[in-house]
Prior knowledge:
globular; mainly alpha
Amino acid sequence: MGLGEWVGFLALVVSLYILWKIRAIVLLFFTAVILAVALNRLARRLQQSGARREVAIALTVGIVLVLSSVFIWLIFTRLNSQFDELTQLIPLGIKQLRLWSNWLQAKVPEPALNNLPNLDDLSRQLQTFSEWVIANIYLFLSNSFSLIINFLLINVLTIMLVVNPVPYRRVIISLFPAFYRQRVDEILTECEKSLMGWLAGIALSMTFIGITSTVGLFVLQVQLPFINGFLAFLLALIPYVGAILSVVPPMLLALLDSPGKAGGVLLLYFAIQQIEGNFVTPIIMEKQVSLLPAYTLALLGAFGSLLGFLGLLLALPILIIAQTLVQEVLIKDILDRWETAPSRKP
């Protein structure tokens, strides 16, 4: 390689290293971009209804401030104390699971027991899994000061992007060669459409799962239904894995009362997931985002291990953006236009 190519390669390596060092800020900024995309769409809808741009922006920013105030109020009045209580009760639920498994092993005949899974191994695996959940989710959310600072930073960035989004878009477009800038503008529009299609479905899905799980846990008289409903609401962002993570805490709490109640919690969450997947989300999805399950799970694992809980929450929108870029840039602009050189006749 020539000197210019080596300089370009080193610049790329240094840029990737810097991005890795500030990955937490990058993830927060990406979160703000997602929220800004949704709020800009809301502002445009208000403008189409006859409101001026200034009025539409003011109403949109007002919605952000009200929701932010409600969220911070919930952290100080409900979430923080209930998170602490939940982290103390979960080990008791695991202990109760072991006692119940020992009782079951003593009652079931040995020949039949050989055909069942090893309950001791199951309880140990569940304990390991629960400890991972506590370490990566509860401790993340229970750090009120850090959570509020990050939340306020996201709100500031979101408001800045909503109030005046054009300069930021122009900066991104200007980073590309002049002949490709119009195409970059079209690709950014496609990314926005893909994100809005996902946001439309996930907003309804999270709301439905959060409300129904909270009400269901109230009916079943499981401890801490509010915080478990909030976790179900939040973990709905994570496909496949989120449904499993959200059911573990309420099941362990239900075991403190009886195995039958734990079974009722499992049936409740199974019913909620079935209704949500088959009836609720398809009603509002403007654009179905087709993602292969194997790729999605692989990305979830990578982002969860490398970037923590916030990376796990943002894995799916990042995958949606990446899929749109691959479709528009790699496939349409490069591979579809690739012409084979004509063969030379001897």
